[in-house]
Amino acid sequence: MYRIGIDLGGTKIEGVVLDTGGREIIRKRIPTEREHGYQHILNRLKFMHDELAATVAGEPTTFGIGTPGAISPRTGLLKNSNTVCMNGQPVKVDLEKLIGRRIEIQNDANCFAMAEALMGAGRGKNLVFGVIIGTGCGGGIVYKGEVFTGPQAIAGEWGHMSIDPQGPVCFCGQKGCVEMFISGGGLENRYAEKFGRRRLLKEVEAEYLAGEPKAIEFMDEFFNRFGRALANLIDILDPDIVVLGGGVSNFRAIYTEGVDAVKKYVFTDALETPIVKNRLGDSAGVLGAALVGV
Questions:
Q1: C-beta of residue 81 within 8 angstroms of C-beta of residue 63
Q2: Contacting residues for 238 by C-beta, under 8 A, at least 6 apart
Q3: Mean local confidence (pLDDT), 20-24
Q4: How confident is the model at residue 82 (pLDDT cuts 50, 70, 90)?
């Protein structure tokens, strides 16, 4: 059985075909062109599916799509997507009609977690928590090779736990969400708020590594919040491994100072949970989409 996977992003649509052994047959990318609206995006997804399916014509395939947001179990409509024209739309139903086959649609963080659990840093582990710390902050839970989404399709959404009820207002409407403090975008906003000028996170990182006092003060606050947030998760899930992804995961000190902060706050005598960098990089989303397909 071949596996077709598509990762739907705000600017690009990436697709892959995997063979029965999980080896990559072909990979393609096309622009999303979301400025043309909902129906155009559906047509782009159909185009990508048909191009990929043609490479294994006549062979049985599964098909999965990873996207920001999730399908609401209550309404069947997409929610929480940053491609806003997709929100409130019956994406799964419309795509199945358009393409003429069953489709599995999963949150992109769930796809990341699935790929890392089966093919990446979490391979061989029972309970894998995949964390994305990029522009936003998301997560996914994989248990014994299956994505756990929960009855409201919000399992793993650690970015919207509040760690400071007096903190900044999040787009979700709550105050002090994890995403507001430790995502790439959140960190840049907090730096501007604290020091009165905006800096790119990579610039702050360079200054931190160079020993600049302001950067050290700021990143120490980041490590503390990262430690609290991740310790809360580990207290609840007690996962076999935590795999970090997204741009912030490339910051090397997160695996030393950041992990030390987790140890400080977790409810145990000694932290046994490995907290590691992803192995699949930008490929995790599309590979995970293929792996969750039906």
A1: no
A2: 127, 273
A3: 94
A4: confident
Check: pTM over 0.85? Answer yes or no: yes
CB 49 within 8 A of CB 94: no
**Dihedral sign for Cα atoms in the order 113, 116, 119, 121:** negative
**Percent over 90 (pLDDT), the chain:** 95
What's the mean pLDDT in 7-36?
A: 95
| Beta carbons of 45 and 4 less than 8 angstroms apart | no
Amino acid at 143: Y
Which is nearest to 83 in space by CA: 118, 104, 108? 108
Q: Which residue has the tokens 């419309």?
A: 94
- Give the chain's mean pLDDT: 96
Q: What is the pLDDT of residues 213-264, one digit of tens each?
A: 999 999 999 999 999 999 999 999 999 999 999 999 999 999 999 999 999 9
Q: Looking at the DSSP assignment, which residues form a beta bridge with residue 141?
A: 129, 148
Give Cα 285 to chain centroid, integer Å. Answer: 8
Find out whether 41 and 102 touch, Cβ atoms under 8 Å: no
**Residue 148: other Cβ atoms inside 10 A:** 15
Three-state DSSP class for residue 102: coil
Please, which residues bridge with residue 138 across strands? 132
- Identify the CA nearest to 243 among candidates 16, 233, 225: 233
Residue 104: Cβ within 10 Å count: 18
Query: Coil, strand or helix: which one is 94?
Result: helix
Q: Give the whole-number percent of the chain exceeding pLDDT 70.
A: 100
Dihedral Cα 16, 82, 150, 96, nearest 10 deg: -50
- Count, residues in the chain: 294
CB atoms within 10 A of CB 189: 15
To which residue do tokens 């609290």 refer?
Answer: 228
Buried b (16+ CB within 10 A) or exposed e, 207-228: bbeeeeeebeebbebbbbbbbb
